[in-house]
Amino acid sequence: MPDRILTQSALADLADVPAQSRWTTSNGLRLHALDYGGPGTPLIIVPGITSPAIAMDFVARELTDLVRPIVLDVRGRGFSDDGPSYTLQDYAADTEAQIAGLDDPILLGHSMGARIAALVATKTTLRGTILVDPPMSGPGRGPYPTTLAAFQAQLSEAKHGTTADKVAQSWPRWPRREQELRARWLSSCGADAIAATHQGFETEDFFDIWPAVPAPTTLVYGAESPVVTSAGAAEAAHTNPAARLLEVPAAGHMVFWDNPQAALKTTREILRALV
User: Fold this and answer.
1) What are phi and psi of 122, to 5 degrees?
2) pTM, whole model, 2 decimals?
3) In the chain, what percentage of residues exceed pLDDT 90?
4) Which of 17, 108, 180, 206 is most buried (most C-beta within 10 Å)?
5) Please, what is the Cα angle at 34 between 28 and 55, to 5 degrees?
6) With contact defined as beta carbons under 8 Å apart, do 218 and 255 qualify?
């Protein structure tokens, strides 16, 4: 982790997280996850491009009465190893390794994680999938709305010790705790992982995978998202008619962070139908 930073204040956040570390090996990489335990159906949560596992703690802990959440540190983030490459196929292989041995799991992914979940669903038998605001950029579809330069600037600020107040300037609607976690944990994400993933958003087409994602699957998107536009949602409905599409009001791309109450309500409704 030569360019990744985990400070003592970040590690101390784990004291308040009601989960245990779960370790898996995939193609020689050591991969970490937060396992919230319990007897329920495993719900594997795959975060986005700059979100280590702890960033989705506030989602996982609200679902433990329905499922057993397991939130992944994707390669190059959090406690998981860096990888030699960061293609969608790499991420899918890692996720398959992390769900091996789990009984009939559900897969939920946000943003990058939604793309990963979609590909895994075409290769592995799952109880169901929930894809939250997957990037629909790609060849011939225009750029991803957030530039790589913007991600790099945020990462540089985090490495130099950003604050929750600074994060709030970019993400004013987020709950304060999530702004604080973003400030302390963004530096655990690798620059190469972010750059390669961003390139993938513009060279790997979600719609090459989406039509083959089997039911039951639900695509959840923010009503104000620049990533899943109304045109993108219409194309998704047309190209996978067996899928369910649900819109979360008053939310942009960061659906759970922008409107936690509505996003969690929607997620719980989907999960109840699956478990």
Assistant:
1) -80, -10
2) 0.97
3) 98
4) 108
5) 105
6) no
Q: By C-alpha distance, which of 104, 110, 3 is closest to 47? A: 110
| Residue found by looking up tokens 């802990």 in the block | 61
275: nearest Cα among 13, 36, 43: 43
CB 262 within 8 A of CB 250: yes
Position 2 confidence tier, pLDDT thresholds 50, 70, 90: low
pLDDT higher than threshold 80 for residue 188: yes
User: Other C-beta atoms within 10 Å of 38: how many?
Assistant: 14
Three-class SS of the chain: CCCCCCCHHHHHHHHHCCCEEEEEEECCEEEEEEECCCCCEEEEEECCCCCCHHHHHHHHCCCCCCEEEEEECCCCCCCCCCCCCCCHHHHHHHHHHHHCCCCCCEEEEECHHHHHHHHHHCCCCCCEEEEECCCCCCCCCCCCCCCHHHHHHHHHHHHCCCCHHHHHHHCCCCCHHHHHHHHHHHHHCCHHHHHHHHHHHHHCCHHHCHHHCCCCEEEEEECCCCCCCHHHHHHHHHHCCCCEEEEECCCCCCHHHHCHHHHHHHHHHHHHHHC
| Token pair listed for 187 | 């530096």
User: pLDDT, tens digit, for every residue of 12-57?
Assistant: 999 999 999 999 999 999 999 999 999 999 999 999 999 999 999 9
Cis before 143? omega within 30:
no
User: What pLDDT shows up at residue 21?
Assistant: 98
Percent of the chain with pLDDT over 70: 99
